[in-house]
Amino acid sequence: MVDTLLIPGPIVMSANVQKALGSPSVAHTSPEFVAVISRVLQNTRKVFKADSKKGQPYVLAGSGTFGWDIAASNLIHPSEKALVLSTGFFCDSFAECLKLYGADVDKLDAPVGGVVDSAEIESQLRKHNYRMITITQVDTSTAVLMDVKRIADVVHRVSPETLIVVDGVCSIGCEEFEFDKWGIDYALTASQKALGAPPGLSVSMISQRALEFALNPETPTRSFFGSLKRWTPVMQGYESGKGAYFATPAVQLVNSLDVALEEILQDTLEKRWEQHKKTSDWLKSKLTDELNLKSVSEPQVSANGLTAVYVDEPPKVTSYLKQNGVVIAGGIHREIGPKYIRVGHMGVSAIDSKLDHIPRVYDLIKQAVH
């Protein structure tokens, strides 16, 4: 019997997405594959709530982390300043990536479980000319949800030339996100989280002004595989229905992502966001109100795709659930890692009540902590 996977990604896939993963190989420039990836790119725009023509979506072989490399190697020159807002492990890792490519990084750290104050962000933006600011909408290490719209509004008002980069790895598909309305310049996610596909694809969207910066001959190309100068004409060709080539795409993964995006868009994104919030609110309420467990994330800034709570013996809890066919995750935050557990609730596990995944994980945690 296969365990029920309730970590913050990869997640349980729908039967149709799983089936698409087993599709036969086809040539990556064939009319059959071009039709699929063209639809995937157009649907990526829709899921990000981006303009149907401006900017460019990218679906590339790689993990969500690859999106950091794309941003760091294409959207900032060496020695230019970047401001990183940190609510946990993954924000800090994004900062390390930027430093590796030569950016001059300043970091504003939130208290554990909280967010960086808007006034502090505004004050910092007034001190320097930043090429880029990074916002991790949900840091998976703490389950903290940052208010991207509010922060973007501050950036547009105080430092409109600064590119706004959003790590949406654990948010796109389950949290409210408006690429165009909020004026985002680059947003990245991964196939295996709330998009509901298998791991292995880096999925991202770039604005027109950020794309022009990346393609400018004066912007140095500092990555071969991650070069937007190389990938942009390929993605543009695919999206317009023409075969193109730079490196071989992951054909079967793209097929499964195609099905996953179609499933997401069968209904409105707003309804899907609300379904995730309803599931999240239920589980958090049961864990905190009935079991008296303390949430790692402050209630007003808690993510809807995962829950992090303190428990006395995390290895004992995760082991008990594993013995009963459910897999959850331990903590990874550098300060509190050994003190808490994390439960993912994205995709079908969150929106299909017939699966009974979330009530079951609650019952098992209740048994494990008593």
UniProtKB/TrEMBL annotation:
Record carries keyword Chloroplast: no
Entry coiled-coil feature ranges: none
Species annotation: Zygosaccharomyces rouxii
Assigned keywords, A-Z: Aminotransferase, Pyridoxal phosphate, Transferase
Family from the record: Belongs to the class-V pyridoxal-phosphate-dependent aminotransferase family.
Swiss-Prot/TrEMBL cofactor(s): pyridoxal 5'-phosphate
EC number: 2.6.1.44
Any Gene Ontology CC annotation: peroxisome
Full protein name: alanine--glyoxylate transaminase
Record: residues binding substrate: 342
Xref: PANTHER family: ALANINE--GLYOXYLATE AMINOTRANSFERASE 1, AMINOTRANSFERASE CLASS V
Source organism superkingdom: Eukaryota
